[in-house]
Each structure stands twice: as C-alpha cells, then as structure tokens.
C-alpha cells in the first residue's frame, strides 16, 4: 500500500508530491494528460496567458528557483508557464512519480483499514492511506448541449482542450461562443488568424486592458532582491496578489465625482484586475459598483466606433460578480471589418447546422466552431469520479445540495481525502499558486502529524463542515459576488446547485487553518486503525 495517491500533475499535484516525498512517504501520482502542467497543459488556445502577474504567479518554496527563473512579460503567456512547470518537474525530479495518460475514475474508502482503493481508467487499482485531489478548479470543460452540434461539418474546438499541434485558421471562417476570460483573450488573436470571426455573445463582458508588456531588467531585479518581503506582502493581500497596486482605498462616495473618475482612469491606464480596487466598496455597495461599471461602459463607447455594437458590448450586470477579465485589444477587435458580433442573449442559439450557427431565422456560416464556454468549475472533476466514503456513500449524494467541506480541504464521511483548493477555500479568488502552496503545506504537515502520532485517519466532523459552509455563505453574502449568473455559483452549468463556492479573503483563511492546527485539529476527528 502507498502512503498517498495524488491526482493531477499541475501546480498543486507537483508540489504535493514534492512535499510528501520530503516526509519519506511513498506516492503514486496520476495525471489524465500526457505530461505535467494541469490547466496550462490543456488551455493552449491562441492568446492564453495568466491574469496574475508573472513575478507573483510562481512557486515560493524554492528560493533558488525564484532567483534563477526569469519571466519575460508582465503577464506570462501559456507556453512560458508550461515551460516553467516542466522546469520545476525536472529540477525536483517529480515526473517519475506520475503515471500519465491515466484518469482516476473512482475511489472507495476502506473503513476497516483506513485507506482508499483508487481505480484508474487503465483498469489498475492502487491502495493508499491518503487520497489527495490536486485536480484543479477549472479542469472539466463545459460544452453546452446545443441541438445539431453533431451535424456540424467543420471542426469543433474548446478553448480548454485546444489541439497541441495548433491549427491553421487563415482560410477559415471561425465562430466563437463565449466571452469569458478565455473568449476575451482568444477573440483578438483569432480575428487576426482567421478569414472571418463571428462572436456569439450571450452576456457582454467587463474587461480591463491588461497593458501587458515585456519586463525590464531593473524591475525584475527589484523584485528578486526582495523576494521574501514581496511574497510576504502579497500573501497579506486579500487575494494573495497585487501588492504593487495596493493603495489607500476609500469609499467611492468619500470622493468627489471628479476624484472618482481620476482614480478609475489612473487604474485603467495601469491595467489589470486590480482596477476593481479603485474603491473599498466597489464589490460590496451596488451604488459604488455602478460608478465603476458606468466608467467601463464609457470606455467601451470610446473605443468601439459603431454605437450599436458598443451598446451590445456594454454589460449591465454588477461589475466583478462574474470574474473580472483583462484583455489586449478586445473592444478594438470589434472595429475590424472581418469581425461580426451576434447577440445570443436576447435570442439564444437555436441550433447548429452543418454549415453554421442558427440564431433566429439566420444561419451564421462558419468553418470552425470554438467553444469558449468555460468549465464545470470547482466540483465538476471530483464529482465525475465515483468517490465513495463511509458506508459506500457516493460524493454526488453527499454534495447533492452543493459542496460541503471543512476549510475547502476535507469532506465529512470521506476520511483521509484532501481537496487542494477545494470549494470553501479562497482558491479562484486568489493567486492560485499561493493558495495551492498554503494547502499543500497544510496537508503535508497534517499527514506528518498523523504519522508521527501513530494515527491513521482524519475526518472533518459534520458540525464543523456545516458551520464552515454557513461561514462561506455569510462572507459571500456581504459582497455582490452572488448577484449574477457566474461559475463561482455554478450557474453556468444547467442543473448545478447554486452555491457560492470560493471563500473571499486569503489572510483570515490562512489564520483559521493555523488556529485549527494549534487547537489540536479542531473540527476534525483523528483516529487509529485497530
Ligand atoms: O469560461 P466562463 P472561461 N450560449 O465560464 C458563455 C479562468 N481563466 O473559460 O456569461 C452562449 O468565464 C458564457 O455566457 P454567460 C478564469 O478564472 C483565466 O472564459 O454565462 N454562450 C460566457 O460568456 C475564468 O473566469 C484566464 O451568459 C454561452 C462564456 O461562455 C475561468 O477560467 C484565462 C453558453 C464562458 O465563460 C473560466 O473562463 C482563461 C451558451 N449556451 C480562463 N454557455 C486568465 O488567467 C456558456 N456561454 C486570463
């Protein structure tokens, strides 16, 4: 029997294996892809890059690595992040612990022996004391069930499963469905690469200029010369990122209208998601939020030459309640003659035909159809496995009313199962790499504690999980996040229970995790077999 099975070889799985190995644990890793990288292995669509700055979006645990590795752009493109992850895997000899091209399809907990029996799609089974899901928050793609899709004569692509060899679109009329982060990044590049691009937009998007650029040697040096302080400062930020953009923030209504516009304009010129930090109440007070939203709508009308197109591209929901997006030339792209915008919010897509997409009475002819329709976020991947805890109870049953975890790390009735950046943890509201490191280190310390005390099981109590779910909801309810149809709520997947899944606020969360340990794993039941 192994000490642990780790599922996934992205940022989380690699660091988990690294730490377990340091404890002297035996580990079997499984990865569905052919190589390491996780989200950065799969999401290879044109224009893919991170929306957290490159000097922040990297591991903190290896001081030499962060000195030796040099990022080239403010926001790293997908190939550079993937080569970084490959470099880390080689540097720490992590690849050898994974079986690639292998998907975990199920696992059952053996109550008599305190271990998991994990089944993979190659028919193999492995037993392990601990089962650690490093499966990512955005790893199961969501493709809407639009009638006729199987009749389409051209290629159908999904941004989250882009062909590794790339695709020549120069002679193709391309249609893209979806204007979330993936669509907004891909659209300007696809417009350049294709003969014609048709964008099918259901909800207009608030997007802020990324103002991406090459990094200068002196700014890289400034961070590298004080990396520990830079990391500590970022980790004290609500989302574990954005230290350079911190500013004294006041309510929108403590400023004059002119001062409000000045601050928004300043942040618009700086670019990036920290635009939303202009006012302390931007994501809690609808009136402050509307000031920010109206500013962005004004920008859209400045950039887009055709007023009707500008209207259609102007969102009217709460800004930030769907994840804020950053872009390079997104709105500018709609000034091109070879780009069309189709509103599928008022009149939904009726069907896909052999030659295109029918909306109302009109078929928009395309040769290639791109789904930028996102993911069954945070729970999709775990729930697609047949996970069975105490008494053979399936996780799908346990989570029927939405994910129920303690700290986003542990599930009652599923002992010795850990979820890295699971629902109920800050995860997608943070710099994911920072959140991942915090979770991995917590899990590794916990396993070390159990082993050194001769214990063989840890399980969240139902009371602790219920209180935690209430806490996550209460924190989210103090914000405007739950006010629109976002994937944070599961609203993008038909039939998915609507529950706000991530927890806003990284520093208090970290403190809580530390307190739980200091209080003897408060909220958990620890046990020993036999
Ligand atoms: O997915 P999304 P994504 N008909 O769910 C539309 C991270 N990420 O892949 O808003 C028509 O955000 C849907 O419309 P609506 C990041 O966390 C990060 O873009 O539901 N349209 C929406 O426009 C991000 O938030 C980076 O009305 C349909 C789009 O598809 C997360 O991944 C880059 C439809 C889906 O948007 C997910 O982003 C990329 C239908 N039937 C991703 N169904 C960076 O770091 C769905 N849509 C920069």
Overview of the molecule:
- The protein has helices spanning 11-22, 39-42, 63-68, 78-91, 181-193, 217-224, 227-235, 257-270, 286-303, 307-312, 330-333, 380-384, 395-398, 432-452, 462-477, 506-518, and strands at residues 2-7, 27-30, 98-99, 104-110, 115-120, 125-133, 155-158, 173-177, 196-201, 207-209, 325-327, 339-343, 349-352, 356-359, 362-365, 368-371, 386-388, 417-419, 457-460, 524-527.
- With 530 residues, it is an alpha/beta fold.
- Strands 1, 2, 3, 4, 5, 6, 17 and 18 form an 8-stranded mixed β-sheet that branches. Strands 7-16-8-9-12 form a 5-stranded parallel β-sheet, covered by helices on one side.
- It is globular, with a radius of gyration of 23 Å.
- The relative contact order is 0.14.
Could you provide a short overview of the structure?
Helices cover 32% and strands 17% of the residues. The chain is an alpha/beta fold.
* Poorly predicted residue ranges: none
Structural class comes to alpha/beta
The portion of residues forming beta strands comes to 15-25%
Tell me the Rg in angstroms: 23 Å
What is the mean predicted local confidence, pLDDT? 97
Per DSSP E runs of 2 or more residues, the count of β-strands stands at: 20
Q: Give the termini distance in whole angstroms.
A: 17 Å
**Discrete helix count:** 16
User: Quick one: overall form?
Assistant: globular
Bound molecules: 3-acetylpyridine adenine dinucleotide
User: Largest beta sheet, briefly?
Assistant: 8 strands, mixed
Bin the helical content. 25-40%
């Amino acid at each position: 029997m192994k000490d642990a099975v780790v599922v996934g070889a992205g940022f989380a799985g690699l660091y988990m294996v690294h730490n377990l190995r340091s404890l002297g644990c035996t580990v079997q890793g499984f990865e569905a892809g052919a190589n390491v990288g996780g989200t950065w292995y799969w999401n290879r669509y044109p224009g893919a890059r991170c929306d957290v700055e490159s000097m922040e979006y990297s591991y903190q645990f290896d001081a030499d690595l962060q000195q030796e590795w040099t990022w080239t752009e403010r926001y790293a493109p997908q190939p550079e992040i993937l080569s970084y992850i490959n470099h880390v895997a080689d540097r720490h000899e992590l690849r050898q612990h994974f079986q690639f091209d292998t998907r975990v399809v199920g696992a059952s907990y053996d109550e008599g022996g305190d271990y998991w029996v994990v089944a993979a799609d190659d028919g193999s089974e492995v037993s392990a004391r601990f089962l650690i899901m490093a499966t990512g928050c955005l790893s199961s793609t969501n493709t809407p069930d639009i009638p006729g899709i199987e009749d389409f004569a051209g290629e159908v692509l999904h941004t989250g499963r882009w062909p590794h060899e790339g695709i020549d679109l120069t002679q193709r009329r391309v249609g893209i469905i979806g204007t979330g982060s993936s669509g907004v990044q891909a659209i300007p590049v696809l417009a350049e690469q294709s003969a014609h691009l048709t964008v099918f937009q259901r909800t207009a998007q608030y997007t802020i200029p990324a103002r991406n650029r090459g990094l200068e040697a002196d700014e890289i040096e400034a961070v590298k010369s004080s990396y520990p302080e830079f990391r500590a400062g970022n980790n004290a930020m609500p989302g574990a990122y954005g230290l350079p953009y911190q500013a004294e923030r006041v309510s929108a209504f403590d400023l004059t209208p002119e001062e409000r516009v000045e601050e928004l304009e300043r942040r618009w010129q700086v670019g990036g998601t920290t635009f939303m930090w202009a006012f302390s109440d931007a994501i809690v007070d609808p009136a402050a939020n509307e000031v920010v939203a109206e500013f962005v709508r004004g920008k859209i009308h400045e950039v887009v030459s055709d007023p009707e197109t500008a209207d259609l591209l102007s969102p009217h929901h709460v800004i930030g309640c769907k994840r804020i997006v950053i872009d390079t030339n997104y709105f500018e792209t709609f000034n091109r003659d070879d780009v069309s915008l189709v509103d599928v919010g008022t009149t939904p897509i009726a069907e896909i035909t052999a030659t295109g997409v029918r909306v109302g009475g009109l078929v928009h002819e395309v040769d290639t159809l791109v789904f930028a329709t996102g993911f069954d976020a945070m729970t999709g991947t775990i729930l697609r496995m047949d996970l069975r805890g105490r008494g053979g109870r399936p996780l799908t049953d346990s989570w029927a009313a939405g994910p129920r975890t303690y700290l986003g790390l542990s599930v009652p009735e599923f002992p010795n199962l850990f979820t890295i950046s699971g629902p109920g943890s800050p995860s997608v509201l943070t710099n994911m790499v920072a959140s991942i490191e915090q979770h991995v280190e917590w899990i590794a310390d916990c396993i070390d504690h159990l082993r050194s005390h001769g214990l063989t099981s840890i399980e969240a109590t139902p009371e602790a999980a219920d209180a935690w779910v209430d806490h996550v909801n209460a924190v989210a309810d103090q914000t405007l996040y739950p006010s629109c149809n976002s994937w944070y709520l599961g609203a993008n997947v038909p039939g998915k229970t609507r529950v706000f899944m991530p927890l806003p606020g990284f520093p208090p969360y970290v403190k809580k995790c530390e307190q739980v340990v200091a209080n003897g794993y408060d909220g958990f039941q620890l046990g020993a077999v036999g």
